[in-house]
Specification:
The structure is a single chain. The chain is of the alpha+beta class and 251 residues long. The chain has two domains: 87 residues, Ribosomal Protein S5, domain 2; 159 residues, GHMP Kinase, N-terminal domain (Ribosomal Protein S5, domain 2, 2-Layer Sandwich). It is 22% helix and 34% strand. The strands form four sheets. Strands 1, 2, 3, 4, 5 and 6 form a six-stranded mixed sheet that branches. Helix 2 packs across helix 3. The relative contact order is 0.18.
Length: 251
């Protein structure tokens, strides 16, 4: 997003005075609204609307796969992100794809490392569930990583895997999926983290949940993921500025 010098000064001054352009303080999130099970074809789904310019949807897909030989008791969780052509104003197709790839890489580092992949095991060393977390950005006005993590967390919490039984004989084995909703299994998502993105506007002033215009004004952007126990499981810095250690501990 291209902003004039006067626009940047107006936004930055408002943040430093704790009165942002949309009326929020520095540490205020935009209001969010969740809906779950919004995609009938998915085994789990969620949609998040953030403020007046953020709209995210996540669908969970599942298939039976072979586990990694080095982790025979674990399933897998793979994240991807796509966006509609009009999701991010002022960004061309290549820029949008590069941004989606960066977000998908961050999401892949955040979710599988905090998710109990052992609950996806069907038969150790033979069969497991492979889950796919597909994020679609319908509209974005900044802070996409926080929004994507929140929406993915809601979709995984709404996911139920069908019951699986195995029939074996001397020559073969076959897996059979149950159609009984009462036989389905919810996922344990209690350890999944939330992401918080903080932006630094000057040496000592920072704020959360940036809009796209505010991200443009930030000298440094720091994204962290924190699980319910308070453990930081992910940290990533972007933008060109540096963050002093004393300010980092305060953030």
């Amino acid at each position: 997003m291209l902003l004039s010098k006067s626009e940047k000064e107006f936004i930055s001054q408002g943040i430093m005075e704790d009165l942002r352009a949309d009326g929020r303080g520095r540490l205020d999130y935009r209001p969010v609204q969740f809906s779950v099970n919004v995609i009938p074809q998915a085994i789990g789904s969620a949609r998040l609307k953030m403020g007046y310019g953020g709209d995210y949807m996540v669908a969970i897909r599942a298939e039976i796969s072979r586990p990694d030989p080095e982790a025979p008791e674990l399933g897998s969780l793979t994240c991807s992100i796509d966006s509609s052509s009009s999701a991010i104003k002022g960004v061309d197709e290549k820029g949008s794809q590069d941004r989606n790839n960066l977000l998908a890489t961050a999401l892949q580092r955040i979710l599988p490392n905090s998710f109990d992949l052992g609950q996806l095991c069907i038969v150790k060393g033979k069969h497991c569930w492979a889950l796919y977390v597909d994020v679609l950005i319908l509209e974005s006005d900044g802070n996409s990583l926080d929004a994507a993590v929140m929406t993915a967390r809601a979709a995984l919490s709404a996911t139920k895997l069908p019951g699986v039984s195995m029939e074996e004989d001397a020559e073969s084995e076959a897996l059979e999926l149950s159609n009984d909703p009462n036989d389905s299994k919810a996922l344990d998502c209690s350890n999944l983290p939330l992401a918080v993105t903080l932006c630094q506007i000057d040496a000592t002033t920072y704020f959360i949940d940036p809009t796209k215009a505010e991200e443009t004004c930030a000298r440094a952007i720091l994204s962290v993921a924190v699980n319910p126990s308070g453990v930081v499981s992910f940290m990533q810095k972007s933008a060109t500025g540096s963050i002093e250690p004393s300010v980092l501990s305060d953030m």
